[in-house]
Specification:
Structural class of chain A: alpha/beta
Number of helices of chain A: 9
Helix content of chain A: 25-40%
Helix content of chain B: 25-40%
Radius of gyration of chain A: 23 Å
CATH topology of the largest domain in chain A: FAD/NAD(P)-binding domain
Strand content of chain A: 15-25%
CATH superfamily of the largest domain in chain B: FAD/NAD(P)-binding domain
CATH architecture of the largest domain in chain B: 3-Layer(bba) Sandwich
Largest interface: A-B, 54 and 52 residues
Largest sheet of chain B: 9 strands, mixed
Shape of chain B: globular
Oligomer: heterodimer
Number of domains of chain A: 2
Number of helices of chain B: 18
Largest sheet of chain A: 7 strands, mixed
Chain lengths: 412, 539
């Protein structure tokens, strides 16, 4: 019997699991895959929290400001590279344009735009889905006082590969940067840039080297990092494109953090249904066990509390069948809020379907949207499965997921 | 104002128009084709991609059936690179009308369409998704045809023989002098310039827009605009074209195409020549009917829905005036006979399979008027020259067989420069579009074409954005090339938005299942990872 079983290994699930484990609870996290973390840019957005709290039923209405702040500090606590700041922080997108972000690794935070300096964009040969000329042009436009130059670099291990016209994904390069040889190559390259400036008689003091997805943020307790090299110039990294190196290593980092705290993990396991009943007729039901399919076997897992973190439409927690004959949540078969209008004509505008999800009470327990009654009294819903929000147009994906995961863990 | 002198103006850059341009050019008659949008933006790209054997028409319209089988044979010869000779099946289900079956078999024999019955067991083995309600299966020489490729091939061939065309050039009025049409006035939609074209003859080949063109001079050409909706599935459900053996109706054709299946259609009379919107009801109705031929249709992923307008011609004596009742034959309207005005001919009705024949008839008429004796050669002269095996081998070495063959078919004679570019700079061999295996070098090549004015035009030439991702990854990957060609970051962002909005129109009627996930991923990428601006909702 676990104190809590978390279903789903995305951002909200990991946060809930880690916080519960940190509080000394016996926690099991069951996940089928890696969730949508592989699309993670490396930056958490909170959006206009106060504005969003005024939207009826937005998940932020479930939390007080204190909880939102605690969630932010919790991220900083488990991953000190993430900086909480009162000031708006900005970072480069993979296109070299500037985007705001509420919580980002120190190594991504952009310097003052009013100041002057030099960016040297260091581009490894054959990097897939990366356009140095576009990036440099956008950087120049965004930082008028800064000089931007592009420096290409070759990694010996990949020289033959790129010569044949093969591209290298940023995931592969990130793995190389984490190896001893990769770190050494990078350090040498950066030392070379520094020397070049010195030989030309220019000061290298305002030179900042910019790298696509270096992923420095999750080094310390991740076991994939053998050692850490210091570079002779300040190095900044851009946020990730997909598949995202930040997402990959952050997921790994969260996994280690969780297991280090004693959390138990079951990967490749699909939660399919639950058993539970109402102790009193007409009252909320209590879930006793979760039925999980894993490696051809069916397992029954007993828990006191259950956290549903299977994601929404993108993550696969909500399934929509052909012609929308059915829209379902696959584990608890929870009743869902489904908007009447499904989509709007503009692709980049807010879309009604994004609001689909589970409505909850203030303890994130699922409600029946028609009766308003709590359906399960020991189930808490977190992350994208919650109804009435859109991470992309409201820019609060990280905020809702982190806060809901953190708060749910406090309820265990 | 720009003034141009030519012999013949062809209005409309669909299959018929470019077919006429090629035929005129092959006969040495100077001609200019004017198209209001991009080539193939209308009906010629908005159909199921079926090269009819004629089987569909044998019972009701034997003339159309005969034309189809003849043209089917000709096109397989002259346009082999645009056609996949899949063959097609007509499937008679338990409970379908046996009288129709009898008439159909007789009709095929009369029209000269070879029919071979396929034993049921064999049929189920070859096409596992075929309904078990099938009672009899007949094979006919149906095939699939790529409307885009066919159009480009015609236009390139016409150019070689001196034909000219101008896209984004909208005809504003016909130029009448003393009871004769002597040209047309058009507006260049890119520059805003007015163009005055003087010619001996004007050919109205504007498909669903034919009524509008004729009406410019007060003539009445009654086109029934019949909208057909189609669904695109993200894989080949069948290896062959699958027809239902019954009186032609909605939702009875599945056509395998490259990596997808196109399923349709519906039939609905509409008012506007560009009413391409598909509503959800059309889609649910189609899927419901689709169960008859493919019981597992609901397990399949629908990528998008689209619609085209059949420009059906109602001649005065037709007895049945509704949708599929109207003949699929084409008519040549000599406005001298009809309206007493010389120099104008309209070509209406027909179908893509018979585009060449329609072009031949029109060009015969034009040639007679101009006193040109040269005979038609379009039934013999291939649209594409044999490609040098060295180029082909080199492409296969550089890109692998699958990607190389697809590219060679798309580019044919122009492939050589693309292959050279990749040989010199191997990184140009990276894919921009992984679904259709389109390389950077090929996109760069396409962008050199001055008739490409937008990312959407590029899509029609390269198939970029037509696969499963519906433009999410491939448009992103084309960024440096788009910026280089169209200039400036803002324009690049705008091009993304236009293309993705256009794709979105086709996705919204089928917004469920894996395609819905794909759309959410696209929104995440553009709005979050790439930080594009959120648009305001309407209303």
């Amino acid at each position: 019997m676990w104190d809590a079983i978390v279903v789903g290994g995305g951002l909200a699930g990991w946060i809930a699991g880690i916080r519960a484990a940190q509080r000394g609870k016996k926690v099991l996290l069951v996940t089928e895959g890696v969730g949508t973390l592989f699309y993670f840019s490396g930056i958490f957005d909170y959006g206009d929290v106060e504005g969003l709290r005024h939207l009826p039923k937005h998940p932020y209405t479930l939390f007080d400001s204190q909880a939102i702040l605690q969630g932010q500090h919790f991220v900083q606590e488990i991953c000190p590279e993430y900086v909480v700041s009162d000031q708006p922080q900005t970072a480069f997108t993979v296109l070299g344009s500037v985007r705001q972000g509420d919580l980002m690794p120190r190594s991504m935070v952009l310097p003052n735009r009013q100041a002057q300096g030099r960016f040297v964009l260091l581009v490894p040969e054959g990097l897939k889905d990366f356009f140095p000329e576009i990036v440099a042009a956008n950087m120049t436009r965004e930082f008028p006082g800064w000089q931007v130059s592009v420096k290409k670099m070759q990694v010996e291990a990949l020289a033959e590969w790129t010569r044949l016209g093969k591209s290298v994904s940023s995931i592969d390069y990130a793995a190389i940067w984490r190896s001893e040889a990769g770190q050494r190559a990078l350090a040498q390259e950066i030392e070379g840039i520094k020397r070049q400036y010195q030989e030309a008689g220019k000061s290298s003091s305002q030179v900042v080297v910019v790298l696509p997805s270096l992923v420095r943020g999750y080094f310390d307790s991740s076991r994939t990092k053998p050692f850490r090299n210091e570079f002779s110039l300040p190095v900044m990294e851009m946020s990730s494109f997909v598949p995202s190196p930040h997402g990959r290593y952050f997921a790994e980092y969260l996994k280690h953090t969780f297991t280090d705290l004693g959390g138990e993990l079951m990967i490749g396991a699909r939660a399919v249904s639950i058993n539970g009943e109402a102790t009193v007729e007409g009252q909320a039901k209590t879930c006793q066990e979760l039925i999980v399919h894993s490696m051809g076997k069916s397992l029954r897992l007993k828990g006191k509390k259950f956290i549903l973190a299977t994601g929404g439409l993108l993550g696969g927690g909500i399934k929509v069948s052909m012609a929308r004959k059915s829209i379902t949540e696959g584990v608890f078969d929870l009743p869902l809020y489904v908007p009447n209008e499904w989509s709007g004509p503009k692709f980049f505008a807010p879309q009604p379907f994004t609001q689909a999800g589970v409505e909850t009470d203030e303890f994130q327990r699922p409600l029946d949207p028609t009766s308003g009654q709590v359906v399960w009294d020991n189930v808490h819903v977190v992350g994208r499965m919650l109804a009435h929000w859109d991470p992309w147009t409201q820019r609060c994906g990280g905020g809702v997921s982190l806060t809901s995961g953190y708060v749910a863990a406090e309820l265990i | 104002m720009r003034e141009i002198d030519t012999q013949v103006v062809v209005i409309g850059g669909g299959a018929t128009g470019v077919g006429i341009l090629r035929d005129l050019s092959l006969r040495g008659i100077p001609a200019l084709l004017l198209e209001q949008g991009d080539l193939a933006h209308g009906t010629s790209s908005r159909f199921h991609g079926l090269l009819h054997s004629g089987g569909r028409y044998v019972v009701k319209d034997d003339k159309a059936a005969q034309e189809c089988i003849e043209e089917n044979r000709i096109l397989k010869r002259i346009a082999a690179h645009c056609i996949e000779d899949t063959s097609g099946w007509f499937v008679y289900l338990n409970g379908d009308d046996p009288n129709y079956l009898e008439l159909w078999i007789k009709g095929c024999a009369q029209a000269g369409i070879p029919v071979k019955e396929v034993p049921l067991e064999e049929a189920f083995r070859l096409e596992p998704l075929l309904t078990r309600k099938a009672a009899r299966v007949f094979e006919v020489p149906d095939a699939t045809v790529d409307g885009f490729k066919l159009l480009w091939a015609n236009v390139k061939s016409a150019e070689k023989y001196g034909g000219n065309y101008q896209t984004y050039c909208k005809v504003q009025s016909l130029w009448l002098e003393q009871g004769q049409v002597v040209g047309a006035y058009a507006e260049d939609l890119i520059t805003g310039e007015t163009i005055q074209v003087r010619s001996k003859i004007v050919v109205n080949a504007a498909g669903p827009w034919s009524s509008e063109i004729a009406a410019m001079s007060g003539f009445d050409v009654h086109i029934q605009k019949d909208k057909g909706a189609l669904l695109v599935f993200n894989q080949r459900m069948f290896k062959r074209v699958i027809n239902r053996l019954r009186t032609p109706g909605d939702g009875d054709i599945f056509v395998p195409h490259e990596t997808v299946t196109i399923f349709g259609t519906t039939s609905q009379t509409v008012d506007l020549p560009d009413d391409h919107q598909v509503n959800e009801q059309d889609v649910t109705d189609l899927i419901e009917i689709g169960h008859n031929l493919a019981e597992e249709i609901e397990q399949q992923r629908v990528v998008r829905a689209f619609a085209g307008i059949r420009p059906l011609y109602e001649s005065v004596d037709a007895s049945d005036h509704e949708g599929r009742g109207v003949s699929r034959n084409f008519s040549l309207i000599d406005h001298e006979k009809k309206d007493g005005v010389r120099g104008l001919v309209s070509i209406v009705g027909g179908k893509l399979t018979t585009y060449r024949l329609m072009a031949e008839k029109v060009t015969d008429w034009v040639a007679a008027k101009l006193g040109v004796q040269t005979v038609c050669r379009t039934a013999e002269e291939p649209l594409q020259n044999e490609l040098a095996t060295e180029v082909w081998d080199k492409a296969r070495q550089l890109l692998g067989v699958a990607a190389a063959d697809k590219m060679m078919e798309r580019l044919n004679e122009q492939a050589e420069s693309v292959v050279e570019a990749i040989a010199c700079q191997p990184l140009l061999g990276q894919y921009v579009c992984e679904c259709e295996m389109v390389t950077q070098a090929e996109v760069l090549h396409a962008l050199q074409d001055p008739s490409i004015h937008s990312l959407d035009d590029l899509r029609r030439q390269t198939r970029l954005g037509m696969g499963t991702c519906q433009g999410t990854y491939c448009t992103y990957r084309a960024t440096p090339m788009i910026q280089e060609r169209f200039g400036g970051w803002e324009r690049t962002v705008q091009e993304y938005q236009i293309l993705l909005s256009e794709r979105w129109r086709g996705i919204t009627p089928v917004l469920w299942g894996e395609q819905l996930r794909e759309s959410e991923l696209a929104r995440a990428l553009f709005l979050n990872v790439l930080n594009f601006k959120v648009e305001e909702s309407e209303g």
